[in-house]
Write a structure and sequence with these properties.
This protein is α+β, with helices and mostly antiparallel strands. The protein has one domain (about 5-290). It is about 25% helix and about 20% strand. It is built from 10 helices and 15 strands. The protein has helices at about 20-30, 30-40, 45-55, 65-70, 90, 135-140, 145-150, 190-195, 200-205, 270-280, and strands spanning about 5-10, 15, 110, 115-120, 155-160, 165-170, 175, 180, 205-210, 220-225, 230-235, 245-250, 255-260, 280-285, 290. Strands 1, 2, 4, 5, 7, 8, 9, 10, 13 and 14 form a 10-stranded mixed beta sheet that branches. Helix 1 packs across helix 2 (about 30-40). The chain is globular and about 50 Å long.
Length: about 290
């Protein structure tokens, strides 16, 4: 399988992703025996709950320092000392200092650290991960009336790796409603997996929140569960006005994704995001940086 390449907005260079659990992903999604294990065990929520419990055990704390060293994380950004975490999961969904993620002076900001794809027309997302397979908005939202409103609108897929900061934030200022859960299995959302089947995005367990705004209409924000992400925790208060960049929630252990969806004609996405996405390249950017206007 090919290396995963992405464009780093801050270095202005193409870089190669250091994939956590790469050998396991390649075996699971690219080997016949692995595929058997995928459908009989790995995709099932019970597997992720089991792994999540392992990361909640006191002895999992021993994984924290090697993880920081292996992936060269900047501990000066952490709100708490690395030694303060009692389990690996506590470290995984750690908070950061506010100054570590400044919020851009623009209408729309990235909701999470990660590698992002942006499209100005959902209906034209075709064959990005899988040739010939189109993006299925109806199945993603599991609400035909809602999906009709967003036909032709903008969509941003933000992919978080296990090495990333795993709290997600509001991309716009507005008043969020309650979060709706759509249950499903827990496939990986790595390009290694999505390259086999893009439908994992709309089959997986996911949540959806409608955010009412003054000038951007109703913005949809979704969190997509994935293998070893048994928990999508919402920390915001519904029906209370929130500023862009305010925390919305966090993922427990594992890589995952958020999806932000806009009504047609409401936004203009950042130029580098659109340019790279048109070339099937993800753009690496941090939570709070400019996503559009």
């Amino acid at each position: 399988m090919k290396e995963i390449k992405f464009y780093n907005r801050y270095t202005a260079q193409m870089e190669t992703e250091q994939v956590y659990g790469e050998a396991f992903l390649k075996w699971t999604y690219g080997n016949p025996l692995g595929k058997l294990a995928l459908h009989s065990m790995v995709k099932r929520p019970a597997f992720s709950r089991w792994y999540g419990k392992r990361m909640d055990q006191p002895d999992s704390k021993s994984r924290v320092t090697p993880f920081i060293d292996d992936y060269e994380l900047d501990t000066s950004e952490f709100a708490d000392s690395p030694s303060s975490y009692s389990t690996f999961n506590e470290f995984f969904y750690r908070k950061l200092k506010a100054e570590a993620r400044p919020i851009a002076n623009t209408d729309i900001v990235f909701p999470a650290d990660g590698r992002h794809l942006g499209f100005d027309n959902i209906d034209k997302i075709d064959g990005f991960f899988v040739k010939g397979q189109t993006f299925n908005l109806d199945q993603l939202l599991a609400n035909p009336d809602l999906s009709k409103r967003y036909r032709g609108g903008g969509l941003i897929l933000s992919r978080l790796c296990p090495v990333d900061y795993h709290r997600f934030h509001f991309p716009v200022s507005g008043t969020p409603g309650p979060t709706r859960l759509i249950n499903g299995p827990l496939f990986s959302v790595s390009p290694i997996a999505l390259g086999r089947n893009l439908a994992y995005l709309w089959q997986n367990k996911r949540t959806i929140t409608e955010i009412q705004t003054e000038s951007l209409g109703t913005v949809l924000m979704m969190e997509i569960g994935a293998t070893c992400v048994g928990t999508i925790e919402q920390t915001y208060q519904p029906d209370v006005a929130m500023l862009k960049g305010a925390e919305k929630g966090y993922f427990a252990f594992g890589g995952s994704s958020t999806i932000t969806i806009f009504e047609p004609g409401k936004v203009e996405l950042a130029e580098d995001l659109l340019r790279n996405s048109a070339q099937q390249i993800e753009t690496y950017a941090l939570m709070g940086d400019k996503m559009g206007q």
